[in-house]
Every structure is written in structure tokens, then in C-alpha cells.
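User: Glycosyltransferase. Structure?
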Amino acid sequence: MIEHREREGPLMKNNPYSLSISKIVTAVIIVVLTGCIIVFFFPNDFFASQSITSIRLFPFAGPKTQENSTKYESSKRSNILIAELKKQLRELRERLRLAEQGKDHIASVKEEKAGPFGTVKALRTNPNVAPDESVNPRLANLLEKIAVNREIIVALANSNVKETLEVWFTNIKRVGIPNYLVVALDDEISKFCESNKVPFYKRDPDDAIDTVGKIGGRAAVSGLKFRILREFLQLGYSVLLSDIDIVYLQNPFDHLYRDSDVESMSDGHDNMTAYGFNDVFDEPLMGWSRIVHTTRIWVYNSGFFYIRPTIPSIELLDRVAARLSKENAWDQGVFNEELFYPSHPGYDGLHAAKRTMDIYLFMNSKVLFKTVRNDAKLSKLKPVIIHLNYHPDKLPRMKAVVEYYVNGNQDALKPFSDGTP
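Assistant: Predicted structure:
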């Protein structure tokens, strides 16, 4: 059962939109007060004109006298004024709503007519939040030196995964990717990164996070990333979150679209499962209506996704982190539920734009071992990354991927089964 949550507003306290919100609220108050003044000074005209529709639809009844003409003109003026006030109030409410969402075009909000058929396009990209270096000055200083175009690859690691981490950063270096960072969850990994000249960041002490980070397994550590990534986004940086069981073969920043809040690789193994398909549910007992069409898509992989510093992105991280702190749940399941579940009674859905990555460029290990290695054409393609997410024997398979794609050993993948016995 997903609990209903009110949107929290700490991010909005010190941002540049707060002044605009204050101005808009003030304007709303002025409009309301103006309406009250009109009611006070012209009570008869106001109450006589509550039904604008009746005046528009029916000519003024009664004999044509000077008194009736005066009443009619007075009612007409009141109707026009009230209609104008209502219009202004609607516009101010809309501006306030957009200001609360962090829109940077508050002053220019206006109603627009739709264009000709086939030409209408909605906005695709939410604006970035205003960077707030006061959140973490030390991290801000580090990112300024490492990030490229305010983008960076981030991975979390503790000493339990040292060997896998070494394969991870060795291939990043080989490809020539400069903007990457390891969030070291214990002192041993900090020293390991330093000795290998790998950029790392050791967080300030935090008991709630440090305990899990130092002794937790892969699943527990995976859940920490949603809380830790929040600071990166608040500082105004786009993050390519990466698990360490990934082999980099090309620079991923050359293959991103950057048109969504979240751009993620898929656990799907073909075009249908990765990008969505029409599935049919058959219930024979329903007779004539036994067939129901459904839309399905395989989940996004929470171990490799690009996330932009927008309000919906930060809300996503907050929602997932909050649920994982209360529920004994799989982080990837919660990540997908918050991204895809629509609003319904008792729950407000997340308004975030999503994009699924190309499954043959950002490849999971099921696609590689079950399909690609057995296909003459697909096996000649060079992926951007390969994520060994479907198999527990990660380290030997990662080394085999390097042998196959980097060293040209065509037999390197043959000893491995499609799945896991």
C-alpha cells in the first residue's frame, strides 16, 4: 500500500522563485480585496448580476423606462468587471502553480491557441533547479574540478566489492572518461581509490548512512544511492548513476538524449519488453468480454540511469529514499513504481519525463549472453556499456567481456551459460 504524501518544500525555501511566489500571492490578495470593495460600494449591482448567463441569454425584462435602462447598464458594467476579475484570478492561480513547480517563465504565462493538426508539441524538458552550493561546499568544490558540462558518473562502493570496482574504473580510464567519481563508503575504499589515482569522495560522518555503507551488502548499499544523489542534484549537476558491475566500452555521454528527467537502461531483452507492447489478458469466465488489452514494459534498471537536476528528479529521489527507509523492499521495484504509477485515489503520481535507453548500446547481460553473442550481426556491434546485472558470477563475466570486446578474443564468452544454473 503506497501512502499518500504531501509534497515537501525545503528545496523551495531559498531558491530564486520564492520572491516571484510572494509577488503572485500579493497580487491574488489585491484582486480579492478589490472584489470585496466592489461588493461593499455596489451591493445591489453585484447581487443583481450574479447570473451573468441569464443576462446574456434573456433581454432585460419589463417596460423600457429610464430606471430600467440605468439598472441594465449598471448590471452590465458589474458583470464585465466581475468577469475580468475572475479571469485575472485564474491567471494568477496558474502563475502561482507554475512558480511552485520552479518554472522560469512565470511572467510570460498566458493562454495560447492550439496550432494546426499534427503541429502541436508539449514541453518535453523540465528546467534545472538553481544550484545551491551551501548544501555541500566541499562536494561543490570537488565537482567543479571533475565534472564536464556539469555532468558526472557516480558510483558507490565499499571494501566488499574492491575487485569488481577495479575492473570498473580500469575500463573507464581506458575509454578516456575524465568525469567520474567514486563515493567511498569506508576508509579502505578511500585509500584504494587514492592509490589508484581514482577520483573519490568521502562523505561527512552520518551514522544512519555509514553503518549500512560500511557493512551492508550490495542490495543495502544500492538503496543508499537515492539519498546520496540528492546533494549532487541540488548542486546543479546531472548524474549518470552507475553500479560497479558494468564494463565501459565507449563514453556514455556521447550517446545521451538529455530530453527527460530520467534516462535509464532497461531490464528488457528485446524491443517489445524494453520499449513497451500491447499484452492481452484472457479470462474465459467473462464470456464476451474475456479479452482485455494491457500495456506492459519491463522495468528500468536502477543501477544505471542518467538523472537531471530538476524538481521531479529530486522528488523521485525523496520518494524512493523515504519508502526504502520504512519498507523492506527492493530498491529497483520502488524506483519503478514511483516513476510509472499514475495518480489514483490516495496517491499522487510523479510528473517526471522518462526515456528508455537503446538496449543494444546500453546492454544488460541477458541481452548479451542470450541473444547478441549468438547473432552474427549483433555480435559485431560495439555497445557503450554492458551491465552484468542478470548474473551473480559478475567478476569472471566482466573480465570475459573485456577479453571479447577489447582484446578481440572471439571465444571469451563461450564458456558461460545463458542464464545461471
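The domain at 133-267+300-366+382-397 is CATH 3.90.550.10 (Spore Coat Polysaccharide Biosynthesis Protein SpsA; Chain A). The longest strand covers residues 300-307.
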